[in-house]
Every structure is written in structure tokens, then in C-alpha cells.
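Regression test case RT-17, inverse folding.

Input:
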């Protein structure tokens, strides 16, 4: 999915710009730099080159960064990151999978999960490469 240049610059996703939309050498340099240093890699599937995002920031809530990664292990899960927190939770139930998180932050994540589960599922499914051992989310 392509993103307009102006928006991609603002949100740090210039690697998602369609290269046919680039207008000058400096934009090509910017795009190539985003590919080489951004949260992605290029791989070949069925004879076609594909851009694979390594991680996708789903949301930021009260300083908690909620992410999904492209090449994951079962069960389908999401990560919560801060300088002091590195935890993961099962998408289906919001059960703590690993890591430690304080009671206050846990309640925030549980509330966010209740309100944003569909957004999380959409992010999970849209970042699955064809060789992901987990695949798309099939839960409720």
C-alpha cells in the first residue's frame, strides 16, 4: 500500500511511497535511505520482490507503544514497549505472554485492547509475510 509523500514524511514511513511518485534525485535518496534504515526489508516471494515491514506501530497510549512484528511465533500476539517495559500479550485474550508490566499500565493495555482489538487484528493480518509460521489471525 502506497502512502502520499507528504504524509509518509510526517509519520516516518517514506519507504511506503510508490517510487513512481518520486520527482527528483533527492527524493530517490530519501526513499532508498528509508528502505535501508527503516523498519522493513525486501524479500522475494513467487518470483516477485516484496517489501516486508519488520514491525508495525499499531498505537501509542499514555507513552506505551503497541507493536506487531512481521515474522512471529504462535500464538498471535502484540508487544508493548517503553524504556521500562518490554511485554507481549495474546491478541485473542490480552493475556500477558511474557515480560513484566505494572498494574496501572496493564489496566491501560486491557482497556485499549477492549476498544481496539479490531485495529490490532487488522495490523497483525496486514503485516504477515507469506512465509510467516503463524499466518493471519483466525480468532473471533
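Golden output:
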Amino acid at each position: 500500500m502506497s502512502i502520499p509523500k507528504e504524509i509518509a514524511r510526517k509519520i516516518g514511513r517514506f519507504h511506503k511511497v510508490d517510487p513512481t511518485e518520486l520527482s527528483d534525485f533527492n527524493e530517490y535518496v530519501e526513499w532508498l535511505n528509508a528502505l535501508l534504515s527503516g523498519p522493513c526489508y525486501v524479500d522475494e516471494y513467487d518470483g516477485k520482490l516484496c517489501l516486508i515491514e519488520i514491525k508495525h506501530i499499531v498505537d501509542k497510549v499514555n507513552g506505551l507503544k503497541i507493536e506487531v512484528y512481521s515474522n512471529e511465533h504462535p500464538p498471535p500476539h502484540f508487544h508493548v514497549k517503553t524504556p521500562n517495559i518490554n511485554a507481549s500479550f495474546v491478541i485473542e485474550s490480552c493475556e500477558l505472554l511474557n515480560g513484566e508490566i505494572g498494574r496501572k499500565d496493564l489496566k491501560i493495555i486491557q482497556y485499549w485492547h477492549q476498544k481496539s482489538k479490531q485495529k490490532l487484528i487488522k495490523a497483525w493480518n496486514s503485516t504477515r509475510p507469506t512465509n510467516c509460521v503463524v499466518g493471519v489471525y483466525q480468532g473471533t
